[in-house]
Amino acid sequence: MTLPRRKELELAILEELAKVGGRARPVELYQRVAARFNLAPEDEAWRRNRQWAQQDLSQKGELDSTEGGVWAITEKGLAKLGKPKAVSRPAAMAEPSPAWAPAGLADLADSQERTVRERLLERIKAVSPAEFERLVARVLEALGFSRVWVTGLSGDGGLDGECYLAQLDLKAAFQAKRFASHNVGGPLMAEFRGHIQGKYERGIYITTTDFSPGAVEIAESGGGVRILLVNGARLLEIMMEHGLGVTSEPLFVRRLDEPFFQGLSAG
Q1: CA 54 → CA 6, 51, 143, distances in Å?
Q2: Are 138 and 231 within one domain?
Q3: Is position 155 within any domain?
Q4: Within a domain: residue 186?
């Protein structure tokens, strides 16, 4: 199995999104892209690459993942594909049925998913700053980083820890901000970048909220260490996908066994 290059993967994500009307759930989109490249869904390298590709697309403004459990191609993403701005909304993502309509299993699953996401975010925001740093360390390990080290200190020089990605021989520093409401602003991002410049190949900034336009501009500006941004919505996606802080239970659907009854008449 040969993994696609990052640019190929990013383009495939945008193209598959456009095919289904511009919006899709990550799991459904992963399946379509994996089938396109004949990739095994459970392969760890594939899982890591698709997460980095999603992050890159979001930072470039070509993909919107701020809506819980749904990814959407942006006008900038459509422009990259040379497609018109208007994208039809697929039936699977249509407006909810009237309240009196019976809910299907997919509706129930979506409702439970939203509830768990909300409760998970509340629980994350309730941990202490030190606990959040350790949580971020677990997230980085799930993404394939090794030698994850947390400083465990307050006033730690603008860094909460460092980690290593063997596949790219890349040493990175990370910063974790557990905010209740306000976003990470430009000054905090500039401070972080100043601390890692010349010492690390990559920076990773993870928060429970989001990043201001000024912070995003600093993280993406050239001439310095590149900083990958993981906002609250993306953090929840990673944790739920890797089973961090959540558990999954099988759902059994019972159906009528008509062959059983047909067999009775044959006897």
Answers
A1: 10, 5, 13
A2: yes
A3: yes
A4: yes
- Nearest-CA neighbor of 4 among 26, 34, 31? 34
- Residue 57 belongs to domain spanning: 6-88
User: What pTM does this model have?
Assistant: 0.62
* Domain stop point among 88, 109, 143: 88
Residue 244 confidence class, pLDDT cut points 50, 70, 90: very high
* pLDDT tens digits, one per residue of 128-172: 988 999 999 999 999 889 999 998 655 545 688 999 988 888 999
Distance CA 223, CA 18 (A): 33
- Please state, in angstroms and rounded to a whole number, the distance separating the CA atoms of residues 214 and 38: 39
pLDDT one-digit tens code per residue, 168-205: 889 999 999 999 889 999 999 999 999 999 999 999 99
Calpha distance 117→258 (Å, rounded):
39
Chain centroid offset of residue 155 CA: 29
